[in-house]
Write a structure and sequence with these properties.
Helices cover 49% and strands 9% of the residues. By secondary structure, the protein is of the alpha+beta class. Helix 3 runs parallel beside helix 7, helix 10 (373-388) packs antiparallel against helix 14 (424-453) and helix 13 (409-417) runs antiparallel to helix 14.
Length: 454
């Protein structure tokens, strides 16, 4: 006789309960999701989790990797002057680069809205993002060359300088020993003997290529005859070199050229009594001098080397120079992100402020910037994370002699581990330090994204 279970009664303990179809569907979806996520999880573990754990473990061992030193590498890390320089430079990067980029991006995003060809302008500024850091580093390494004939920045600086300040025409000129001119400590040349009004001096110089003479230079032989008069102290400054050979040293030969445009001074008692400038044939004359003895001086400004520009990659400017290259690359990124946030602002608030009498600066400072504060924060924090990991530009742009002056944590980690230091224990400790510094910014950014999604 079959037992009948009353309605509402619990099933017997020995009878299996049928699986819930919804439970089985939910479990199937989870398995499918896991199957799709498994390759990404494996890659994440192999490329991120395992290297992090391995680096933490490796940082506890010495350079050979066989002796456990505990926190010894972390202690040594902060005793090394190079590491302290890297920390200082990284701090400069974190403070300066994201701040400038966020400010530039904001200003450009606001200005681009008022430009007719806004899309083309954005494209032009964003194009450097398509250039690799390696290529950008090579470009700026060439642009920062100190030689004005190679470095475009110094070429521009020298061009502007020479437009407002005259440069010396004879930077390589010099006097021969024993030819009546002695070099002073300040670089000037003074006659070894004295002269009086009515005398004529011949001041010969060498070291100037005939091809480098000014176009208006004329032969100096006629000027050496002394036609200025008995009441004037006259003379000639000439190139004591005869093209093709021959000629007599210390004497103005017919083929020898004068040196025009050179400043000459008559000195008496340590005071400059008169000043003259040589003519096309190198002649000069001092008239109206009082009777007495004078020495003639060729000031150091005649022989000053030409202005060569700025040492962009010297110890003092190498870090700002590299930051400038970084700004060139990332300004378009900041501008595009901030511009996207700007396009979503409520236009009625901006128009209402303008109708109430606010000018554009007040609208920008009191309405635009506060409304853009969330996107500005995201851009700033993202750039901080990126700046902490900068390596390529520093390694490529900074020359070898100033590499230590420009080093940051990422480059120092590489140099210590593989660039000659061969201490992967200390390099791993630097990598762990870099990770610990990046994590707070990453957590802050993730939390902001989650809050914005809610």
């Amino acid at each position: 006789m079959t037992a009948v279970t009353a309605p509402g009664a619990a099933p017997s303990a020995g009878r299996p309960r049928a699986a819930d179809p919804r439970h089985r569907a939910r479990r199937r979806r989870r398995l499918v999701a896991l199957a799709f996520a498994l390759p990404a999880l494996l890659l994440l573990g192999a490329l991120v989790v395992y290297p992090v754990l391995f680096s933490v473990g490796r940082s506890l061992f010495d350079a050979s990797g066989t002796r456990f030193v505990g926190a010894g590498n972390y202690t040594e890390m902060f005793r090394d002057p190079a590491t302290l320089t890297a920390v200082r430079n990284s701090a400069i990067w974190v403070v300066v680069a994201p701040t400038l980029l966020t400010g530039l991006g904001l200003v450009l995003a606001v200005l681009v809205e008022k430009v007719r060809w806004a899309t083309a302008f954005k494209l032009l500024l964003f194009m450097p993002m398509a250039v690799s850091f390696l290529a950008a580093g090579i470009i700026f390494r060439l642009a920062y060359e100190e030689d004005p004939d190679k470095g475009v920045l110094n070429a521009a600086v020298v061009g502007v300088h020479d437009a407002f300040a005259d440069s010396s025409s004879y930077p390589t000129a010099r006097a021969r020993d024993g030819q009546g001119l002695a070099k002073a400590p300040d670089g000037s040349y003074t006659t070894t003997g004295s002269a009086s009004p009515g005398d004529t001096l011949a001041l010969g110089l060498v070291g100037v290529k005939p091809a480098d003479l000014p176009e208006d230079a004329r032969p100096a032989h006629g000027a050496a005859a002394g036609k200025a008069g008995a009441d004037a102290l006259s003379g000639v400054v000439y190139l004591d070199f005869t093209p093709g050979g021959g000629g007599e040293r210390g004497k103005v030969d017919r083929e020898e050229s004068g040196l025009p445009g050179m400043t000459v001074e008559a000195v008496q008692g340590g005071r400059t009594a008169a000043t003259a400038t040589t003519a096309a044939d190198g002649s000069f004359a001092f008239r109206g001098l009082e009777a007495g003895s004078y020495t003639v001086r060729l000031p150091a400004e005649n022989f000053a080397p030409p202005y060569e520009g700025i040492s962009w990659l010297g110890p003092a400017l190498v870090t700002p120079a590299i930051i400038g290259a970084y700004l060139w690359i990332w300004t378009g990124f900041a501008m595009v992100l901030i511009g996207a946030g700007l396009s979503s602002l409520p236009r009625d608030a901006l128009e209402a402020a303008r109708m109430d009498g606010a000018n554009e600066w007040q609208v920008f400072r009191r309405i635009t910037v506060p409304l853009l504060a969330p996107i500005l924060t995201v851009v700033f924090v993202t750039l901080v994370i990126n700046v902490m990991k900068v390596f390529d530009l520093v390694y490529i742009i900074a020359p070898g002699p100033v590499q230590q002056d420009a080093t940051v944590l990422a480059t120092q980690m590489w140099l210590v581990s593989f660039g000659g230091g061969n201490d992967q224990g200390l390099g791993s400790a630097l990598g762990v330090l870099l990770l610990l510094l990046v994590i707070p910014a990453m957590v802050f950014n993730v939390r902001r994204f989650r809050r914005s999604q809610r």
